[in-house]
Write a structure and sequence with these properties.
Blueprint: H1 3-17, H2 19-31, E1 34-35, H3 36-43, H4 47-59, E2 63-70, E3 73-80, H5 82-86, H6 91-116, E4 119-120, H7 121-128, H8 135-150, E5 154-156, H9 165-178, H10 186-205, E6 212-218, E7 226-229, E8 235-238, E9 250-256, E10 261-264, H11 266-285, H12 288-301, E11 316-317, H13 318-323, H14 341-346, H15 354-373, E12 380-384, E13 390-393, H16 395-414, H17 417-429, H18 434-441, H19 445-458, E14 462-467, E15 477-482, H20 485-513, H21 515-521, H22 524-528, H23 535-567
Antiparallel strand pairs: 1-3, 2-3, 4-10, 5-10, 6-9, 7-8, 11-13, 12-13, 14-15
Helix pairs in contact: 1-2, 1-20, 6-8, 9-10, 11-12, 12-15, 16-17, 16-23, 17-18, 17-19, 18-19, 20-23
Length: 575
């Protein structure tokens, strides 16, 4: 664990939950998993305060627990969840994402769960004042909750969610071993672990949405309209919501279980943020029209993509992609088709009818799909030639490409464009000696040697020693230069974490320097009107507000760097 990571986690917890909870987090970061008795004895806290602090952390999924034996007793041990603590600084991005996709009511529900932690639907109703809602607002609330659950912005809490994956695996293995009459052989252990792993994979790939309940409902009966999840995954209204003339029928109704508790699904939200970065990449590389087509592709992959650890998406038909492009998308001038013999002969439909418009949109969409498929990044792949073709998104390749671009920008800001040229040369050519590096990067040998040493000291380059003799004499070694993605990411993460910590410390210092003024501005008489503040005090508060806004922007940028370098890369190790 980085020292910078520990300092940042403590600062984030203190800002969000206060110093008492921070004391518990600091101990767990330093000592690892501990029992409640050890936490109370080492922090010197009252037992009630320690329990309440742990309850807050478990409520917000920052601490997991598991039972284990300590001597003759069975104890409950608590451990920290670093990733969820670091995601506290990403709350603004998550809220903006919820508002964009779920609307105002969905944002209110999402914010209530984010602030209060694990909550049931009935608890959310109490927080938002559901009893004071009108009929229209109550219907919007039901639709917003159903959509949040169906699109997995929030996920249901189960008994195993507060237990780490390793502990779940160990408990399942111990349960299987207890079923045997004799001690398991090595082959039986391998089979047991394989079955447990297959079960975990099956649960991960399952499309069943926990927290929804199905019941038969007569749609012809009266009463208030209820929410049903349609075949396309979107909420619709049933009950009184059907048009006149429809036949009486029974329908399977998917309703959100009011007694089920839900929490924010951070890994799923990171998928949406990753998809935005991929869309922006193609928008900068080509044009906005290409990003429209790619956005349609990624929207189709979202229902089966739960977390960023998925390496590739399922195949999607080209016709399905075209049908999901918005009808008002302006793709007429997206691709220059003057060199295509088919378009020279037939041209594009310039009529104003809806059919002509759809035909032109389809032609341009297929042309853009071909452009994306031929792109050198390898993110969009054509996997089948049947019909108009089947396409697949390579998320692993996209994550590596965006990570490398982020690392190159760091090298550019820290050093120069010449250093970036050397890094890209090593990344493309793999292991090279100094002479080959200077030739490939078109630099003098002395200059390339200097740049390589600077990059090595910063952690962006590394060497491999190849001995010519058995005594491994340094004078008879061959040194090959290369780049190690793991070391590059470690160096970049240390800088990003330290930067976020320094920025937050600067915000605290600026607020502390104006503590008396901030306390005065929060008085009830001052809040009612600014007549009690002098022009100088008002100007000082405005300066503080602008400074905090700039600091928040810097934190979001550095947190986006964490997303690119670590969170969205499949198979990334724990921090």
């Amino acid at each position: 664990m980085f020292t910078q990571l520990e300092d940042l986690c403590r600062r984030l917890v203190r800002d969000h939950y206060g110093p008492i909870v921070e004391k518990v987090v600091a101990l767990l970061l330093e000592e690892g998993r501990l029992s409640l008795g050890r936490i109370i004895s080492q922090t010197g806290m009252e037992p009630t305060s320690a329990r309440q602090a742990l309850a807050v952390l478990i409520q917000h999924s920052h601490v997991t627990h598991a039972q284990g034996k300590e001597g003759a007793r069975t104890m409950t041990f608590y451990s920290i969840n670093l990733r969820n603590i670091l995601r506290l600084q990403r709350a603004g991005l998550y809220l903006a994402l919820a508002e964009e996709r779920m609307g105002a009511m969905g944002l209110s529900v999402f914010r209530a769960i984010m602030i209060n932690g694990c909550m049931s639907v009935s608890g959310v109703r109490d927080v938002l004042g559901y009893k004071k809602f009108g009929t229209a607002d109550k219907q919007k609330f039901s639709i917003a909750v159903a959509k949040l659950v169906r699109e997995r912005f929030i996920t249901a809490i189960t008994a195993t969610d507060t237990v780490t994956k390793v502990d779940r695996f160990m408990q399942a293995e111990a349960t299987e071993i207890e079923k045997l009459t004799t001690a398991p052989t090595p082959k039986e252990l391998v089979n047991i672990r394989r079955r447990i792993s297959d079960k975990e994979d099956e649960e991960y790939t399952s499309n069943t949405v926990v927290g929804m309940k199905r019941q038969m409902t007569d749609v012809s009966t009266g009463g208030a309209p209820k929410v049903m999840i349609g075949p396309n995954g979107q909420p619709i209204v049933i009950g009184n919501g059907f048009e006149a003339g429809q036949q009486d029928q029974d329908a399977d109704e998917d309703l959100v279980d009011d007694k089920q508790c839900f929490q924010i699904y951070h890994e799923r939200l990171d998928v949406f943020l990753r998809n935005k970065r991929i869309v922006n990449y193609f928008a900068e590389k080509y044009n906005d029209e290409a990003s429209v087509v790619l956005k349609a592709i990624l929207r189709l992959t979202e229902p089966r993509t739960k977390t960023c650890k998925d390496k590739v998406s399922e195949s999607i038909a080209a016709q399905q992609i075209v049908q999901n492009i918005s009808s008002d998308a302006q793709l007429d001038q997206a691709v220059d088709m003057s060199g295509d013999p088919y378009f020279k002969e037939n041209g594009t439909d310039s009529g104003s009818s809806t059919a002509a418009r759809k035909a032109t949109l389809g032609k341009m969409a297929f042309a853009l799909l071909d452009v994306l498929r031929r792109d050198g990044s390898g993110i969009i792949n054509k996997v089948d030639e049947r019909g108009a073709g089947q396409y697949r998104v390579n998320f692993e390749r996209a994550a590596i490409l965006l990570r490398d671009e982020c690392l190159d920008s760091l090298v550019l800001n820290k050093f120069s464009s010449t250093h970036v040229r050397v890094v890209r040369t090593l990344r493309d050519k793999q292991k090279l000696d100094e002479k080959l590096v200077s030739q490939a990067a078109m630099l003098p040998l002395a200059r390339s040697r200097e740049l390589l040493h600077e990059l090595t000291l910063a952690g962006f380059a590394d060497t491999v020693e190849i001995p010519r003799t058995a005594d491994r004499n340094p004078s008879r070694m061959v040194y090959l230069w290369h780049v190690s993605p793991q070391k590059q990411v470690s160096a970049a993460l240390r800088g990003a974490l330290q930067g976020i910590s320094n920025i937050m410390q600067r915000a605290d210092q600026e607020t502390l320097a104006r503590a008396a003024l901030v306390a005065k501005s929060q008085r009830a008489d001052v809040v009612a009107g600014t007549t009690h503040l002098t022009p100088g005090e008002q100007a000082s508060l405005q300066v503080l507000g602008k400074l905090k806004q700039q600091i928040d922007v810097c934190v979001i940028r550095l947190d986006t760097m964490l997303l690119l370098l670590h969170d969205m890369v499949p198979g990334s190790t724990a921090l």
